[in-house]
UniProtKB/TrEMBL annotation, chain A:
The protein's name in its UniProt record: Phosphoribosylformylglycinamidine synthase subunit PurQ
Signal sequence bounds: none
Its job: Part of the phosphoribosylformylglycinamidine synthase complex involved in the purines biosynthetic pathway. Catalyzes the ATP-dependent conversion of formylglycinamide ribonucleotide (FGAR) and glutamine to yield formylglycinamidine ribonucleotide (FGAM) and glutamate. The FGAM synthase complex is composed of three subunits. PurQ produces an ammonia molecule by converting glutamine to glutamate. PurL transfers the ammonia molecule to FGAR to form FGAM in an ATP-dependent manner.
Keyword Ligase: yes
Annotated organism of origin: Arthrobacter crusticola
One GO BP: 'de novo' IMP biosynthetic process
PROSITE patterns, sorted: GATASE_TYPE_1 (PS51273)
Gene Ontology CC entries for this record: cytoplasm
Domain of life of the source: Bacteria
Gene name of the record: purQ
Main location: cytoplasm
Catalytic activity: N(2)-formyl-N(1)-(5-phospho-beta-D-ribosyl)glycinamide + L-glutamine + ATP + H2O = 2-formamido-N(1)-(5-O-phospho-beta-D-ribosyl)acetamidine + L-glutamate + ADP + phosphate + H(+); L-glutamine + H2O = L-glutamate + NH4(+)
One of the Pfam families matching this protein, by short name: GATase_5
EC number: 6.3.5.3, 3.5.1.2
TrEMBL record, chains C, D:
Keyword Ligase: yes
Keyword terms of this UniProt record: ATP-binding, Cytoplasm, Ligase, Nucleotide-binding, Purine biosynthesis
One Gene Ontology cellular component annotation held by this UniProt entry: cytoplasm
Metabolic or biological pathway: Purine metabolism; IMP biosynthesis via de novo pathway; 5-amino-1-(5-phospho-D-ribosyl)imidazole from N(2)-formyl-N(1)-(5-phospho-D-ribosyl)glycinamide: step 1/2
InterPro entries: PurS (IPR003850), PurS-like_sf (IPR036604)
Localization annotation: Cytoplasm
The protein's name in its UniProt record: Phosphoribosylformylglycinamidine synthase subunit PurS
UniProt GO MF annotations: ATP binding; phosphoribosylformylglycinamidine synthase activity
Species whose genome carries this gene: Arthrobacter crusticola
Enzyme class: ligase
GO biological processes: 'de novo' IMP biosynthetic process
Family, similarity comment: Belongs to the PurS family.
Function summary: Part of the phosphoribosylformylglycinamidine synthase complex involved in the purines biosynthetic pathway. Catalyzes the ATP-dependent conversion of formylglycinamide ribonucleotide (FGAR) and glutamine to yield formylglycinamidine ribonucleotide (FGAM) and glutamate. The FGAM synthase complex is composed of three subunits. PurQ produces an ammonia molecule by converting glutamine to glutamate. PurL transfers the ammonia molecule to FGAR to form FGAM in an ATP-dependent manner.
Amino acid sequence: MSVETPLIGDFQPFPSASAEGSLAGVRVGVVTFPGTLDDRDAMRAVRLAGGTAISLWHGDHDLRGVDAVIIPGGFSYGDYLRAGAISRFAPLMEQITAAATGGPGALPVLGICNGFQVLTEAHLLPGSMIKNNSLHFLCRDQRLRVENADTLWTSDYAAGEEIVVPLKNQDGQFVADERTLDELEGEGRVVFRYVRENPNGSRRDIAGISNAAGNVVGLMPHPEHAVEPGFGPDSSARGEVDLRGGTDGLGIFTSVLKKLVG
Amino acid sequence: MSKKFNIDTVANAEATPGQALPWAELGLKQNEYDRVVEILGRRPTGAELAMYSVMWSEHCSYKSSKVHLRQFGDKVTDAMKEHLLVGIGENAGVVDIGDGWAVTFKVESHNHPSFVEPYQGAATGVGGIVRDIISMGARPVAVMDPLRFGAIDHPDTARLVHGIVAGIGGYGNSLGLPNIGGEVVFDSSYQGNPLVNALAVGVLRHEDIRLANASGVGNRVVLFGARTGGDGIGGASVLASESFDDAKPSKRPAVQVGDPFAEKVLIECCLELFKASVVEGIQDLGAAGISCATSELASNGDGGMHVELTKVLLRDPTLTPGEILMSESQERMMAVVTPANAAAFEAIMDKWNVEYSWLGEVTDTGRLVIEWDGETIVDVDPRTVAHDGPVYERPYHRPAWLDGVQADSFQGSSPDLRAAVLELMSSPNMCSKDWVTNQFDRYVQGNTALAMPDDAGVIRVDEATGLGVALSTDANGRYSYLNPYEGARLALAEAYRNVATSGAKPLAVTDCLNFGSPEDPEVMWQFAESVRGLADACQELGVPVTGGNVSLYNQTGGVAIHPTPVVGVLGVFDDVARRTPSGWREDGQAIYLLGTTRDELDGSEWANLRGHLGGTPPVVDLAAEKTLAAVLVNSSRDGMIDAAHDLSEGGLAAALSEAALRFGVGARIGIDELCERDGIDPFTALFSESQGRAIVSVPRSEEVRFNDMCTARNYPTLRIGVVDTENSALDVQGHFTLPLDELKEAHEGTLPRHFA
Amino acid sequence: MPRIVVDVMPKPEILDPQGKAIAGALPRLGLTGFAGVRQGKRFELEVAGEVTPELLEQARSAASTLLSNPVIEDVTRVEVIQEDAE
Amino acid sequence: MPRIVVDVMPKPEILDPQGKAIAGALPRLGLTGFAGVRQGKRFELEVAGEVTPELLEQARSAASTLLSNPVIEDVTRVEVIQEDAE
Ligand SMILES: Nc1ncnc2c1ncn2[C@@H]1O[C@H](COP(=O)(O)OP(=O)(O)O)[C@@H](O)[C@H]1O
Ligand SMILES: [Mg+2]
C-alpha cells in the first residue's frame, strides 16, 4: 500500500522553476515515516527544482522506480530512543540500503536532518548525532561552506561556495571517532561545513558528509527550506538583505536532477 | 475481560437512595448535587456523579463566565457574520477566507498544569488546542504561544521559563507545526501563576468542515489514539476507593505526560479519515475526557448514545468506571462512523498503527446509556450533562482601591534619552525574545511568510494563489489592571493593529481570558468589565469572536494575577507575497509616523521600569484604529510601503529600535517637528504609548501617493526621517546616536544572561 | 575511580512514550517476547577520592533534586560501584 | 513480573553534553564532591512469563541492535531482575 501524506487540499500544481523540461522526467522519492515532518517541503523543493516528486511510504517494500531518494526531516517515531533509531528498521529502508550500496550507478540518497540521522543509524553513513551542546532545540539561519562540489547532490555549487539555509534540530551534534573523521577529511567526504559559528558542537564543524561512493549524502541543515523566494531565510550568502528571500538550498535539488538527466 | 468491581449500577442507585456519595470531594456544591438528583429523579451512580462533577466544573461548564460571555454572541451583527462559517460554541470557530478555503483557530490556557510541571504542562497545552483544530476537519498549520512569567530574577522563574519554553517547542516542533508568534512578559503578578496560553490555526476546504455530533441512529462510536490511563483524575480517586473491590487502586498520576509523536500520527490519521469521508462526526478528548466526548457528541446529534465502557483500551487496568469517564489522558479522539465505513476506518487505523476500540452506537432514545459488563451504570439525558450545568450570576463590584490607583499618575523626570532607550530595549519585556523563539521551528511546512520578530505571523494557505492568513496575539495586564474595560479594548486594538501592520485585513477574533478567582467580587468585576469591553470593541471594529477559553482562579493565596485577556486576531491576505516586514531595508526611503502622540505614560513599559503602576491606560479610539488599518492594508496591497511596524509597548523608542534591528539597517530620525505638532517633549515623543500609531517606510517614488491617501482619509501623518544603510546607527538628530551594534547587544543580551 | 550510580525511572502510572515506541518496534525486529518496555535514565557520578557517607548523601540529594523530576520520575537506586564492573 | 534490565552508557571518548551540563550544575547546588557525571539510559523490558535463556538472548539482541548505537554507546549490562527490588 502506498499512500500520499494526506493533505487537505492536494498539492497545487505550480510552474516548474526549471526551463529544462527534461528534468521533469526525473523521479525523486521522498520517504514518509510516522513522525516525518518535512516531507511535503522536500517534495516541493524537488518540484521547484524541476523534477517530479514521488511519495514513498516507510512500510512499503517497493521504491516505485524512483531515480533518487530523499529521507526528509522530522521526528520519526518521535525521535524516541535515538533520532532515527526505530525508522532504520522500516521495510523501505532495506530497499534503500540495497539500492544505495549497489556499486556504480547506485541510487542517489539524500538524508536531511532526521534523514541524516536515519542514514547513520542504518550504517549508510559513518558517525552519529548527539544532543546539541546547548541541549536546546535550535532554529536559525545557518551559513555553510560546500566543501565538496563533486557529489551527485552538490554539483551545481562551486567548491568552497558558501550558502545560507535554515537549521532546526535538537540532536544535531555530529560525532565520530578520530580515525573516521580523518578518513572523511582525507577522502573529501566532508560535504558541508558550518562557517562563522558552529551551532551545536559538531566535530570539525561538520554539517554534512557522503559515503565513499559519493551517492549517499547526509546533512543536518535544511536546504529544502531555502528554495522558494518569500519562504526562505532572510539572508543569502550572496549578501543581500531580503525578507525570506534566501534560495541557496535549491542547488542541492537541481544538482541531482541534472546529474540524472546528463 | 473486565475487572471485577463492586460497581454502582443504576439499579443499585435506585435501591439505595440513602447511600452517601463523595460529591463534595469531587467539587460539587450542595445545590449542584441536589440539582443532579432532581434531574435524575434519584441519586446518581458513582459513574454519573463522576460525569456531572467534571462536566459541571468551572473549567468545562463556564458556570461563572457564561452570563457574561453571551455578549460575544449578542453583540455580533449580521455584517460581522459575513465570513463566519462556524461560530462560538463548537470546538473552534471557522472563518471563510475566500476561494472555498476556510481557517479555524482558537487559543486556550494551560496555566495551572504548567506551574506544577512546566515542560509537560506546556506541551500538553499545545497538544490539546491542536486536537480542537483537528476535530473541525482542518489540517493544523501553525501555533502561537502567549506566555506570562513572574519577575525575571525571581528564583523560581528560570525553572518555569526553561520548562515551559522547552515544552512548547518539544511538542509543537515534533508535530511539524511552525510557531509563528506569541508573547513573553515578565511581571511579578504572575509569580505563582504563570500563564501558558496556546493558539493553533488550521486550514480546510468549506466542504470539509466537521461538527462534533453523533447523528444517524445505528452509527458506531469509536475511541482511537492513546490508551486511557489515570491521567488528570488525581482528586477523583475518592471514587476509586468507593467502588474498588479486591485490590488497592494503583497510584493516579499527578500530571499528564504528552506524546507528541502519537499526536502527529493522530493528525495524519484524522486527515486521512476526513479525506476518505469515513467519519460522520469527530470530537477531541480534552478536559473531562470520555464524559465530555460522549455527552457532547450525543447532545449535539440525535440525542442518544449507547456505550459499553469495558471496551475502552486501558493503560492502567485498575481504573474504575468513574475514573475512565473522567480520565484526561492525552492524544485520544472519538468518532462516529457508519457501519458501512467501519472497515475503511479500521484500514486507516491499521495503516497508521493507531489503536481503536468500538464503544457503542448512536440511538434515538434521547438518553446516554453507559454499560459496564452488561450492567447500566449511566442513564442520563446527555444535554443535562453537557449543556445544562449550573449558571452563576456571581456578585461583582468595582474595587474601592481603583480610584486611588487611577489618581496616581506617572510623574517621571526626563531621563537621559540615549541611556533610557538602551535601558528600555534591554528590559525583560522589551528585550529580544530570540532566546525563546529560536527554540521553535518556524520553517516547517514551508508556508511561513512572516514570523518572529515581525508584528504578525503569516501563513500561506494556497500555494497557487498565495492566499493566506496573518495572526497576532496581545494583552497588557497592566492596562487591564488600571482599567479592565479599556484594557480588553486595548488588547484587541493592538492585535488588530499588528495584523493590519503586516498587511492583512483583520477578520475574526479568539480570546483567552485569564483572571483570578470569580468568587472574589472585585476579580469578577474585572472579568465582567473585560468581557464587556472586548465585546463592544469587537462590534466597533466589526470582527466577531469565534471562540476562546476562560481561565479563572489564577491566583496565589488571595492575590490575583493582573487581569489578562489575551486576544488573538486573524486577518486574511489575497497574496502573502504582499506582506510587510517590520524592518527597514532600502537606503533613502522616507519614514513616516502615523497617528497622534499624547502624554500617555501611565501603565507604560517606562513607568513599569520605574516601578510605577497607576493612572489610566492610553485612550483607545477604535474608529482611528480602523482608519489606520485601512491605510496600512491598502498601502501594502498597492506597494506604497516597504516596512511597517506598529507602536505599542515602549512607544516610538521601541518601534524605531526594532525596525532598525530587524535587518540591521539604521535611520536618521527627527522628532522636533513631532513634539511641536503634538505639543509634547522629546521624552514623551519617544516613550508614550499612545494608540493608533505605526511607523512605515515609503519608497521615494511612492511618497506623493502615500501622502494623498493619508490626507484623503484624514489620518495624521508626519515624515520623521529616512532610512540610512550607510551609517549603521539609529540617529535621533539633536538628541542621541545609537550604533546598532550597541543597541543589538543591549537588546539581545538579556534573556541569555538570565537563562542560558 | 569509584562511581555512584543513580537510576531514575518514569513513575509506573505515568505514560512513557519512549518505552511505548520501543515496545512497538521490538516485534518488527522479530523480538516478540516482551510485554512492555520502560525507558529511564542512568547517571554515573564519578568520585575523585573515596566515597564517604557524606558524598553518598550528596548523591542522594542530587538524585532527588537535579537528576530526577519527582512529579513524574522515581529514583530507583543510588549505589556505589567500586570498579568498572557492576 | 520479572524484568530484564539493559543499561546503555555513552562511550567514554564521546563528550556527553547532558552529563557535562549536570556536572556544571551540581556545584551550584552546593554538591561539590563529584569529578564528573555521565548520563546514560536504563531500559526495563517486562517479561510476561518466565525468563528463558532464549528470551535473554532476545534482550541481548535488542540491546545491541536497537537500544544502543555502537558508534556512541556501550551496552554495560543485560540482566534479569526478579522482584521490584534490585
Ligand atoms: N513566546 C513566544 N513565542 C513565539 N513568538 C514570540 C513569543 N514571544 C514573542 N514572540 C514574537 O516576538 C516578536 C515581538 O513580540 P512583541 O514585542 O510582543 O510583539 P508586538 O509588540 O508586535 O505584539 C513578535 O513577533 C512575537 O510574535
Ligand atoms: Mg507590534
